[in-house]
Amino acid sequence: MHAGVSNKLPGFRVIQIENPLTIAVRPQCFGETQAALFFQTPAMIIGFQKKFLFIHIPKCAGDSIRELLLDPANGGAQFLRKHSGYAEAEKVMGEEIKRLTAFAVVRNPFDQVHSFYEHLRKPLRMTPEEIERQYPGTGGRLLPVWASELAMRWEFSDFVREVYAACPDGRRQAVWFGDLLNWLRSVDGDMAPIRILRFEALQKDFSNLAFELGLAGDLPWRNASRDQGSRADYRERYDSASRRVIEACFAPTIEQFGYCF
Question: Looking at residue 182, what DSSP letter applies?
Answer without folding.
Answer: G
